[in-house]
Amino acid sequence: MRMVILFGTEMGTAERAAEAVADVLAGRDVAVHDMADFDVDDLNIQDFHILVCSTYGSGDLPTGAEPFFEQLDDRLPDLTGLRFAVFGLGDTVYGDTFNRGGEICAEKFAALGAVQVGEHGRHDASEPTRAHEQARVWARTLPIGTLAAV
Ligand SMILES: Cc1cc2nc3c(=O)[nH]c(=O)nc-3n(C[C@H](O)[C@H](O)[C@H](O)COP(=O)(O)O)c2cc1C
Prior knowledge:
Layout: E1 3-8, H1 13-24, E2 30-34, E3 48-53, H2 66-75, E4 83-90, H3 100-111, E5 115-116, E6 121-124, H4 131-139
Parallel strand pairs: 1-2, 1-3, 3-4, 4-5, 4-6
Helix pairs in contact: 1-4
The structure holds flavin mononucleotide.
């Protein structure tokens, strides 16, 4: 099964976290893409998608992720059968909007029929652990072995 890691970032932290996830999955068929360069039509329900996304504004998606989700909202592809996992990035100093970016990703994919698997990762930039370090630990918890090809 192909693993497609899509990151949405403003300043590059989510990209480094996505690369750390890819390192953990090394040896498998893994591709890493910036959401800013990824066409919604290239989503394949047979692939396992890992969404790594930060939060900006007042609990919004980062600028780099906006075109991808605008396309998703416009085209409303049927994602039934697609499995995905989410590692979100945020900062608890933002209070109620903590980690909304990753949650928006999960809500939008689920609304189109996709199924989230594994623990929803949430990095807090106020904690001493770096995002890529936490992402590496999180990636090892993904239930990859139980994902049979569709
Ligand atoms: C202007 C600005 C607004 C932010 N807004 C939020 C927010 O609403 N909620 C949140 O959890 N984190 C928020 N953050 C924190 C970022 O999501 C966090 O620093 C993240 O690690 C950045 O990842 P990136 O470099 O991949 O964009 C904000 C950061 C900045 C600079």
